[in-house]
Specification:
The structure holds two protein chains of two kinds. By secondary structure, chain A is mainly alpha-helical. Chain A is 78% helix and 0% strand. In chain A, helix 3 crosses helix 8, helix 4 packs antiparallel against helix 5 and helix 8 runs antiparallel to helix 10. Chain A is globular. By secondary structure, chain B is mainly α. Chain B is globular, with a radius of gyration of 17 Å. The termini of chain B are far apart. In chain B, 43% of the residues are buried. The mean pLDDT of chain B is 93. The chains are: A mainly alpha, B mainly alpha. Chains A and B meet through helix 4, helix 7 and helix 11 of A and helix 4, helix 7 and helix 11 of B.
């Protein structure tokens, strides 16, 4: 096995990583200054995204090349139910309509994950890793300062938890084992695009986006 | 002229194609008045926007070919597959034209096409997992938007502009005939009218097309 296909992908996207971990939306959610309207938008958009993401992850389980790989991937499905339940509870208390039409970036981003399934298993695992690693690293960056301070702590806690970190690390090992020779050009492009989609997603929920 | 395989016409009492068009009709004025289409027609499109167009449309068409091919693989009848497959030679001609123009105007096709082009083509791909009728509704939508947009300016686009080959191709009678054949497939696929996912896919495709044009016209960076 190589020193790390996952690590090589991260190294190539290092300039974008700084934007992820310092994104104004993440910073504002972390210190509690996030405009409630932006938080509401995030709830609705992220709910739509997770619904699409679950379909993507389920399809990826069907492509897994051995039972151990399927174990790793399928382990990501149960926490999604917890997230969806959290979204639904919050949406009900805030009187939000979770069936609202998603913004274009949300739809484009989750569609992109789905479309990568047609690019083959290694590329699909790559985009899974990119999406999850981006989420974990961004929220982990504000975890310490948000604890006991941010009204959005339950969300931040969920995506910066040790359990989530453990799953993201397992996906990284799966990626390394799937492509031991280092990332291909198409994997690098897909990883880079996922990180860029993630940044646009946060921009769009922070400021709103029209069709 | 495109020689579509013969199949006796079967009139559907309800036209799913017409119903989806009617449902999304509020978006049509935005298609017909889109500044990008009008800038192409009157020749005022600047070079940067032209380059963005060639790059984004090339990337889109390369991905769109995979979408059309995917749709052929899930077509329920050989008739459906034959009609849809008529889109592949046209798509190939579009790709070749874009490559030729890129060489002529020294446009690098390897640059990133931008998030809207990537998101739009990915959206179409994702619909292949939603079933034939839904993906077909999106194909029909993408094509009729293109046809209606370019047809609306065909009469006043100068044949001496570098954009004329595009306008000519996407407003031609051949193209119109294919779209008409697609509408028949849509009607046959949903004889009781469109399902809710078909309406959504049709409408979202129109909106993505509008964003795609806006992205080219105004710039669209990650």
């Amino acid at each position: 096995m190589s020193a790390g296909t996952a690590r090589a992908l991260l190294a190539r996207s290092a300039p974008l990583w700084h934007r992820l971990t310092t994104h104004p939306f993440i910073a504002a959610a972390g210190d509690g200054t996030l405009d409630p309207a932006a938080f509401d938008r995030w709830l609705v958009e992220d709910y739509a995204f997770v619904i699409g993401f679950r379909r993507f992850l389920a399809a990826l389980v069907t492509l897994a090349q051995d039972p151990r790989a399927a174990d790793v991937l399928a382990a990501g499905l149960a926490p999604l139910q917890t997230e969806l339940d959290l979204f639904r509870r919050q949406a009900a208390s805030r009187r939000l309509d979770l069936s609202a039409e998603p913004q274009p970036t949300t739809l484009g981003y989750m569609s992109y994950l789905h479309a990568c399934l047609a690019d083959g298993y290694p590329v699909a695992v790559t985009v899974l890793y990119g999406a999850e690693k981006a989420y974990y690293d961004a929220w982990a960056a504000v975890r310490a300062s948000a604890r006991g301070r941010s009204p959005y702590w339950s969300f931040i806690d969920n995506w910066s938890s040790d359990a989530f970190a453990g799953w993201v690390a397992a996906v990284a090992r799966l990626l390394d084992a799937t492509v031991p020779g280092g990332p291909t050009e198409s994997m690098c492009r897909a990883f880079d695009r996922v990180v860029r989609f993630e940044l646009r997603f946060w921009d769009a929920v922070h400021h709103g986006e029209a069709w | 002229m495109v020689m579509l395989p013969f199949k006796p016409a079967q009139e559907c009492p309800v036209s799913a194609a017409r119903l989806m068009l009617a449902h999304s009709s509020p978006l049509w004025p935005r298609i017909l008045r889109h500044p990008f289409v009008h800038a192409v027609a009157d020749g005022s499109l600047d070079h940067d926007a032209f380059a963005r167009w060639v790059v984004a449309d090339h990337s889109f068409n390369v991905e769109y070919r995979r979408f059309i091919a995917g749709l052929i693989t899930i077509a329920p009848t050989s008739w459906d597959a034959e009609v849809i497959a008529e889109g592949l030679p046209t798509n190939k001609a579009d790709i070749e034209l874009l490559r030729q123009v890129a060489v002529e105007y020294e446009i690098d096709l390897d640059v990133d096409p931008g998030p809207t082009a990537v998101g739009f083509s990915a959206y179409l791909h994702s619909l292949l997992q939603r079933g034939y009728e839904v993906a077909l509704a999106a194909l029909y939508s993408a094509e009729i938007v293109y046809y209606d947009g370019w047809k609306s300016v065909r009469g006043r686009t100068s044949s001496t502009t570098p954009y004329w080959p595009f306008v000519q191709a996407w407003s031609s009678q051949v193209f119109a005939d294919w779209i008409e054949a697609l509408s028949k497939l849509v009607d046959a696929a949903a004889p009781d009218g469109p399902t809710a996912p078909m309406y959504i896919a049709f409408d979202r495709t129109v909106r993505f097309e509008l964003l795609f044009w806006t992205g080219i016209y105004a710039g669209d960076t990650w």
